[in-house]
Automatic annotation (TrEMBL), chain A:
Top-level division of the source organism's lineage: Bacteria
Protein name (Swiss-Prot/TrEMBL): Dicarboxylate transport domain-containing protein
From TrEMBL, chain B:
Record organism: Thauera aminoaromatica S2
Keyword list, A-Z: Signal
Name recorded for this polypeptide: Lipoprotein
Organism lineage string: Bacteria, Pseudomonadati, Pseudomonadota, Betaproteobacteria, Rhodocyclales
Superkingdom to which the source organism belongs: Bacteria
Signal peptide residues on this chain, from the entry's feature table: 1-31
From TrEMBL, chain C:
Leader peptide range in chain numbering: 1-30
Keyword Signal belongs to the record: yes
Protein name per UniProt: DUF1318 domain-containing protein
Keyword flag Signal: yes
Keywords (A to Z) from UniProt: Signal
One family name in Pfam for this protein: DUF1318
Length: 684, 64, 146
């Protein structure tokens, strides 16, 4: 150190003292080209530093103007001081007392908005500082000249809050340098301009211990988040988590060797990672959550990520272990182990739309799986796999048996060589399922076969009248695209002595309120005796064919179709019972019977008939009825009626409908009354 | 046909072919706008009677 | 339907026949209406109308804007209280899922699934034009207040 004092006037009582110091060096700190100018009369002065280096950073042209400057016993006192950097005034006022040469110094910085920093620096370079009521705006202003990017970031985030902290720093001596920062944030918050990252009302206490030398530091931190909430799109986090972490810092990268988070609903949460302070990016982060309670974590953090549009309809339960890795702010791998997990998707009808509304508990689930055990490993860069054991499931009213899913996962899709999902006494067998994810939604294809399911079991499960027979399906062309599920192939049911075949099946908007199914149905050689018995409709013998074109079902209720039923020419004895006649009449609307006297009707149990036919074209809630295509003589009935049953044999009977436009709901209600209660309709 | 009329005819023909290229004439744009307006009226409840929610005056004693 | 007997050969009959021919050639266009009353479309309209109660204040505050592509967009989450941002986002996602379904369904209900993009474009334009004063609308990529 070289110092020259030049008294400008007078030997004992000088008016102005100018001091030039070439260099002052302390560990981690160097000041060059210092000059001190002291005006004894005005008791003021100025200290200028040509170049200041702290650590790896350097500043030029600093000057400190002291409102009051005094020098007693080698102690320099500078109060009401203002610091300028290259001619720009820094936003604080300082009081400084420093021993010239080796010795302690005390600095008080008064910042904007009542903030205050008191620091005491000892001769050995150790520092003790107290930070009082520091606010982000003041911090940003204070940091501006030194860490411009950090200051800009603080401003950009519109940070608010008050920080109170204590800093203890000991420079490296015999051992490493050490620093302890202990503090508390009150009323903290921030918000990115678009509101997608924000926090409010944050109360948190923290402790940071660091020790090291030069650029190599190790640290341990502790954070207790006591109040407030944060939103990181699309997730809401609330106060409660407690973080314990330790790691290293090399001047550029903060290495998180291990962080442990105490989180409600998670038995243990830990993380490792590297944060680049220069780029402000997360280089890597590995998170491990053990024993996650899906009931509590699911609605909060999984549903908004997995299915934001139907988050309210998604139910999750069971437990999971989860590991995820991020690289450069992007998700790279996910590894999930499920333990007795359950998933359910509620019907979209009656969606809990009201803001903050809680979805009703009793809402029926369209689809559910569980318990599910197994592991799913996904990677953004290559092959992953899923190996799951599904204990069972439910689709609408149908219970699904246990099955295994072994799929190969890609970055944006999956392939499943095959799966066999038991359904009652049969099974749904999927082959070569390929699913891909794009912004528009899921797309994929598969082949499916329904191994025979016995109709008695199926009808019982669906709450329908018991039917004999089996159902099976061969659907080689299953295609899923946004808004549509195509089932190319046929679904066949052998029932009532004949068969029913559905083809061209399509499910439109499978996952929303607009969900509906379209297809074509052909029924051949249906034994009316079995059919009418199953539905307690009275009794009709004979066989029919039926064709349903353009069938459309919404929530399993028909909304459109063009259906024809016609008896098949054959030599069997065709009879229709008195009750079936009455029921038919009731369906056609009251008083639809003609050509038969009530007295005659009552005389016989059954009647012979030659042929039978009915057509119903349903559209917009109205069924347009028609009967047998035409009378043998080719003319429509003069009275505008249509023949449903044409008599033959002894005694013969015609059933003729007159009401061509029937309200469909009314018709269904009548049919249900007739079938369920077996009530004889009134005949006038 | 006089030259002017012929020229006009040719211009009209060119214009109509160009229009065919740029506009899908099969899409009933006017009908679609009408449909959109009907649905918007209903969803945003812009017109009296368009919405199904009747403005119920706070009935004394009846509510809650 | 009963077939009406027509005095063939008369001028009136020829004109009528010509007229019938035209009507058959442009059955949809002559009607001038798109089918929007199918059960699926009705269900969507009802759900969207119910959801509007939740979205209307979000449009008014500018949190959610009417996007140029026929969707709605969470353009300023900061306008929503922190605790309700996740719900607002869910409402936007659900609304957009319904709108996508609506455009598809209208195209499909009218027998032209390939019209979806045009239905969407038409709706996008109408939503923008019918937006209430004070709501935020997107033109091109830029947002402005109506």
């Amino acid at each position: 150190m070289l110092a020259t004092a030049v008294p400008l006037a007078g030997a004992t009582v000088f008016r102005v003292l100018a001091l030039q110091i070439a260099e002052i060096t302390r560990p981690g700190l160097a000041a060059e080209e210092l000059s001190v100018r002291f005006d004894a009369h005005a008791q003021s002065g100025e200290i200028a530093v040509g170049r200041l280096r702290v650590g790896a950073r350097e500043w030029r042209a600093l000057s400190l103007r002291c409102g009051r400057l005094h020098l007693d016993d080698g102690v320099l006192g500078c109060s009401a001081a203002r610091l300028e950097l290259r001619g720009r005034r820094l936003p604080f006022e300082a009081d400084i007392e420093a021993t010239l040469g080796p010795g302690p110094a005390r600095i008080v910085l008064r910042l904007a908005e009542g903030g205050r920093i008191e620091a005491a620096i000892q001769a050995d370079g150790s520092l003790r500082a107290r930070l009082h009521r520091i606010r982000p705006a003041a911090t940003a202003a204070l940091l501006e000249p030194w860490l411009a990017e950090l200051a800009a970031r603080l401003r950009e985030l519109e940070a608010v809050g008050v920080l109170d902290a204590e800093l203890d720093y000991r420079p490296a001596g015999v051992g490493d340098a050490s620093a302890t920062l202990r503090g508390r944030i009150a009323g903290g918050g921030f918000g990115s301009g678009d509101g997608l990252r924000a926090a409010e009302g944050v109360e948190a206490g923290f402790t940071l211990d660091a020790r090291g030398t030069g650029a190599a530091w190790s640290w341990a931190a502790q954070l207790d988040w006591d109040a407030g909430a944060a939103y990181v799109h699309p997730l809401l986090f609330e106060a409660g988590p407690r973080l314990r972490a330790h790691g290293r810092f090399d001047g550029r990268r903060i290495v998180l060797e291990r962080g442990e988070l105490a989180l409600d609903g998670v038995a243990a949460a830990s993380a490792r990672g590297v944060f680049d302070t220069f780029g402000g990016t997360l280089d890597t982060l590995a998170v491990e959550l053990t024993d996650v309670d899906l009931v509590r974590i699911g609605p909060r953090w999984l549903a908004p990520l997995l299915a934001p549009a139907s988050a309210q309809r998604l139910r999750l339960e069971g437990r999971a272990d989860l590991r995820a890795e991020l690289r450069r702010d992007r998700l790279e791998t996910v590894d999930v182990e499920l333990h007795g997990a359950g998933f359910g998707l509620a019907s979209p009808q009656g969606e809990g739309i009201a803001a903050g509304g809680v979805a009703e508990e009793a809402r029926a689930e369209v689809l559910a799986f569980g318990p599910v055990d197994g592991r799913v490993r996904w990677s953004s860069r290559g092959r992953g796999e899923a190996a799951l054991q599904v204990g069972g499931g439910r689709w609408e009213k149908l219970a699904l048996g246990a099955f295994a899913l072994d799929a190969v996962l890609g970055p944006a899709g999956l392939r499943l060589p095959g799966a066999r999902i038991p359904l009652l006494d049969g099974a749904l067998v999927l082959r070569d399922l390929a699913l891909g994810w794009s912004v528009a939604g899921w797309e994929g294809s598969a082949g499916a076969v329904l191994e025979p399911v016995s109709m008695p079991l199926l009808t019982e499960a669906l709450g329908l009248p018991r039917m004999a027979g089996v159902m099976s399906a061969a659907l080689p062309g299953l295609h899923l695209r946004p808004g549509e599920l195509v089932l190319d192939g046929t679904l066949a049911v052998s029932v009532f002595g004949g068969w029913v075949q559905a083809s061209g099946l399509r499910v439109h908007e499978p996952f929303g309120v607009a969900s509906h199914l379209t297809g074509e149905i052909e029924a051949r050689h249906i034994d009316l005796a079995q059919l009418t018995e199953a539905f307690s409709f009275g009794s009709i013998t004979g066989h029919i064919d039926a064709d349903v074109r353009g069938l459309e079902l919404s929530s399993w209720r028909p909304t459109a179709f063009d259906a024809r039923i016609a008896s098949i020419a054959g030599d069997e004895r065709r009879r229709i019972s008195q009750r079936a006649v009455q029921n038919l009449g009731a369906l056609g609307g009251g008083g639809a019977l003609a050509a038969v006297q009530r007295s005659v009707l009552r005389l016989f149990e059954t009647f012979g008939y030659r042929e039978l036919g009915l057509r119903c074209r349903l559209a917009k809630g109205v069924c347009e009825m028609d009967g047998l295509d035409a009378a043998p003589d080719g003319a429509a009935r003069a009275d505008g009626g249509f023949t449903i049953v044409r008599g033959g044999g002894v005694p013969a009977l015609d059933v003729i409908g007159y009401n061509r436009r029937v309200d469909w709901n009314e018709l269904v209600a009548r049919l249900q009354r007739v079938v369920a209660e077996g009530v004889s309709p009134t005949i006038d | 046909m006089n030259p002017v009329a012929r020229w006009l005819f040719a211009a009209a023909l060119v214009a109509s072919t160009a229009a065919c290229v740029t506009i899908n004439i099969y899409f009933p744009a006017a009908a679609a706008e009408k449909a959109a307006d009907r649905i918007i009226d209903e969803v945003w409840q812009l017109r009296e009677g368009a919405g199904s929610a009747p403005a119920t005056p706070p009935a004394a004693g009846d509510a809650k | 339907m009963k077939s009406a007997s027509m005095p063939s050969g008369s001028w009136a009959g020829r004109l009528a026949a010509l007229f019938v021919g035209l009507a058959l050639a442009f059955p949809v266009h002559a009607q001038g209406n798109l089918e929007i009353d199918t059960p699926a479309i009705s269900a969507l309209r009802k759900t969207m109308q119910q959801r509007h109660a939740q979205l209307a204040p979000l449009y008014a505050s500018g949190a959610v804007g009417i996007a140029a592509d026929g969707t709605v967009s969470l353009r300023d989450a900061a306008a929503v209280p922190l605790a309700q941002r996740a719900q607002a986002n869910a409402a936007v996602a659900a609304e957009n899922a319904d709108r996508a379904a609506l455009y598809r369904e209208i195209a499909r209900a009218n027998g032209h699934p390939e019209w979806e993009a045009e239905v969407r474009r038409t709706f996008a334009q109408r939503w923008l034009e019918r937006a209430q004063p004070g709501w935020w609308v997107q033109q091109g990529a830029a947002w402005s207040r109506k």
